[in-house]
Design goal:
Blueprint lengths: L3 H6 L24 E4 L2 E2 L12 E4 L2 E5 L1 H6 L6 E4 L4 E4 L1 E3 L4 H7 L3 E2 L6 H14 L6 E6 L11 H8 L4 E5 L4 E4 L1 H6 L12 E5 L5 E7 L3 H4 L7 H17 L2 E7 L4 H11 L6 E7 L3 H11 L6 E9 L29 H13 L3 E6 L2 H18 L7 E4 L10 H4 L3 E4 L1 H7 L3 H10 L5 H6 L4 E3 L10 H10 L19 H8 L1 H6 L17 E4 L16 E6 L2 E5 L1
Helix pairs in contact: 3-8, 4-5, 8-9, 11-12, 14-17, 17-18
């Protein structure tokens, strides 16, 4: 275990003789730019650390292993003694909502609201200090922390007055508004229901202040938009946070263009420090096609070509689409956000233009429908390396689990959701349907491809919390010390692959990153603990000492 102070005091340009390397005579031979030595290096595919040195030239790995690196050290080489630190391929988070999450860093965080009183008090405190004409915006409330009773506008009106409030449940699928926000959004008893969404109403037909899924658009249009500068500044904060967690690349399966447009602006200013793979709405395939025709597919810093859509909502908001109704709400079996014919039509034509399609599906009806859509598109458009992705792949009919392998569909999973939703999932759908829910090991054992992510800001952008969740499956309430549905635990190597080799494959970049090999991009994370040598309970205690992206130090503790 390496302490941060020891790492930082080592110096990044130690003299060669002090490290036991012979002096090298000056010559026209230049050698590698940087040599990282005295490390425990996991290459991304071995059973554990198997090397002790990495040589870098430019933005690529030039050589690995102490003998190869020694042979490439010249007088100009910068030698970094890592003093036994653990090094692994840079981690990729395959599911983030990056601009939203970055902006949320400056908004109200309600995750600590464990009671209705705490929720109301935290919102009221922000409302007292908000500038006139501005909204109270935030995310993170969770009614399941206080027994499941959903909040409504009456909770907020007395303490917020004319200050409009819009705060999201932590899953991002349900908004809570006060009356001031409802008025500004022109939402009242006469407002028609929104296809693919729900305006929650009381017994008299009046909106309660809760909007689900597509209905959220009614208020989002009324909230003053952030400026480009505000978005870009927030994105930089998000980039710094991700790098501090050892993340070197993120995928952004978005439902708008805000993240994408910010990335284009940031990339025009230079390297973004963190790598991005940008997805935009599937229904906007024509707009993306025009961009590709005019500007190509991006580069290793900001790449695009992915399209994303929703098939349903979320389990927590009871909008995930199931075959049968919810156990705790027999009036609903969820929401179909887009008609199946639209999803099929968009996917067919997007696929013909070689775009990668990712569709969010959580309920067992939605996951079944999406697999059917992917199968139909492959049958009609013929074979190619298309790598369809199902985002979340959360609840499935048992017979559908084997279809991921059969139909070459990547399961894009978020292990932290299992230990979060696992606190209350049985109340939503009962014990029978749990057998196909968060069934990660079953998917992997069938031989399917998968990748891992956080869904930030729904869960922390810390891969080690996700890895720990995957291998232990201990719910956040501490009630399942042996693991919730323990038969679905992943091994450590499986979980790691979801953030490295599996993530690279899911983004068509396995020839560029995901492992520590000569010729690949020099993206790696330097950590204070060997993840293979500590107990699984300690995984989320791992700290990042330094993050290298493209051969350059982008973060140091």
């Amino acid at each position: 275990m390496l302490k941060r102070r020891d790492f930082l005091s080592a110096g990044v340009g130690c003299a060669l003789p002090a490290l036991g390397f012979p002096a090298i005579a000056a010559s026209s031979w230049e050698g590698v730019d940087t040599a990282y030595v005295n490390a425990m290096v996991w290459d991304g595919y071995s059973a554990g650390p198997s090397m002790s040195a990495i040589g870098i030239t430019g933005e690529h790995i030039a050589c690995v292993g102490i003998d190869a690196v020694k042979a490439q050290i010249s007088k100009r080489t910068r030698v970094v003694d890592l003093q036994g630190a653990f090094v692994m391929p840079g981690l990729t988070d395959c599911h983030t909502h990056f601009s939203l999450a970055s902006l949320a860093l400056t908004e109200l965080d309600l995750r600590s609201a464990r009671t209705p009183r705490m929720l109301v008090d935290q919102i009221a405190a922000r409302a007292r200090n908000v500038t006139k004409g501005h909204w109270v915006l935030g995310t993170g409330w969770d009614a399941d922390q206080w027994g499941g009773t959903l909040p409504d506008k009456s909770w907020l009106d007395k303490t917020t007055g004319d200050v409009p409030v819009s705060v999201s449940r932590y899953d991002l699928h349900m908004l809570l508004l006060n009356s001031a926000a409802l008025r500004l959004a022109c939402i009242n008893r006469n407002t028609p229901d929104v296809p693919g969404g729900v305006i929650v109403r009381d017994r008299n037909g009046e909106p309660t202040g809760l909007l689900k899924d597509a209905a959220k658009s009614l208020v989002e249009a009324a909230i003053p938009a952030y400026s480009s500068k505000e978005i870009d500044d927030a994105m930089r904060q998000g980039i710094a946070l991700a790098l501090s967690k050892g993340v070197t690349k993120v995928h952004c399966p978005e439902l708008d263009w805000r993240t994408h447009e910010s990335l284009l602006r940031l990339r025009a200013q230079g390297e973004t420090n963190l790598r991005f793979y940008s997805f935009v709405p599937l229904s906007d395939w024509e707009r993306l096609l025009q961009q590709v025709q005019e500007h190509g597919w991006g580069d290793d810093w900001v790449r695009w070509g992915g399209l994303k859509a929703l098939a349903d909502g979320s389990l927590g908001s009871r909008t995930a689409l199931f075959q049968k109704s919810y156990d705790d709400d027999h009036s609903s079996r969820g929401v179909r956000v887009h008609p199946l014919k639209d999803l099929l039509e968009w996917t067919l034509i997007a696929d013909r233009h070689n775009f990668q399609v990712a569709i969010h599906a959580i309920g067992d009806q939605a996951t079944h429908d999406v697999l059917n859509i992917f199968q139909t598109v492959q049958d009609q458009n013929g074979f190619r390396d298309r790598r369809f992705r199902m985002e979340h792949a959360q609840s499935m009919q048992i017979r559908d689990i084997g279809r991921f392998k059969k139909e070459n569909v990547i399961a894009s999973i978020q292990p932290y959701h299992a230990i979060d939703d696992g606190r209350w999932a049985v109340r939503r759908i009962g014990p029978g349907r749990l057998k196909g829910t968060f069934a990660y090991r079953s998917i992997v054992d069938q031989g399917a491809r998968f990748c891992c992510g956080s869904d930030w800001p729904v869960a922390p952008i810390d891969p080690f919390t996700g890895i720990k969740a995957a291998v232990l499956r201990q719910t956040l309430d501490g009630k399942n010390p042996g693991g919730w549905m323990p038969e679905q635990k992943l091994t450590l190597l499986q979980a790691l692959s979801g953030y490295t080799t599996g993530a690279a494959y899911a983004g068509f970049s396995e020839g560029r990153m995901g492992r520590i090999l000569p010729g690949l991009l020099a993206d790696f994370s330097i950590l204070d603990k060997d993840i293979f040598a500590i107990s699984p309970e300690q995984i989320d205690q791992i700290s990042t000492l330094s993050t290298i992206v493209g051969g350059k130090v982008r973060y140091t503790a």
